[in-house]
């Protein structure tokens, strides 16, 4: 994590570019996985806030991927 690189628009540009590329191929949803909110972490709370700011919504939290100690939040973004 490099805090001096945050809030410059680079992450937003990367998500937008990826979304545009896969949407052009007919993809309708973009998915990310991150640490779920049931495991307290200020860093991952910021990560989830970023994803929400670029249009992702939380779909499901599960322990099936990374185990009980690392609940996975699946987030999706509907593509135009």
Task: Return the CATH topology.
Answer: Aminopeptidase
Number of domains: 1
In the CATH hierarchy, the architecture is 3-Layer(aba) Sandwich
User: What does the main sheet amount to?
Assistant: 3 strands, antiparallel
Major beta sheet, strand line-up: 1-3-2
Helix content: 25-40%
Poorly predicted runs of 5 or more residues: none
Count the beta strands. 3
The SSE string, one letter per element, is HEHEE
**Which class best fits the helix and strand makeup?**
alpha+beta
Radius of gyration: 13 Å
CATH class: Alpha Beta
Form type: flat
**Could you tell me how far the N terminus lies from the C terminus, measured between alpha carbons in angstroms?**
31 Å
Q: Counting H and I runs of at least 4 residues, what is the number of helices?
A: 2
CATH superfamily: Gcn5-related N-acetyltransferase (GNAT)
Q: pLDDT average, as an integer?
A: 93
Q: How big a fraction of the residues is strand?
A: 25-35%
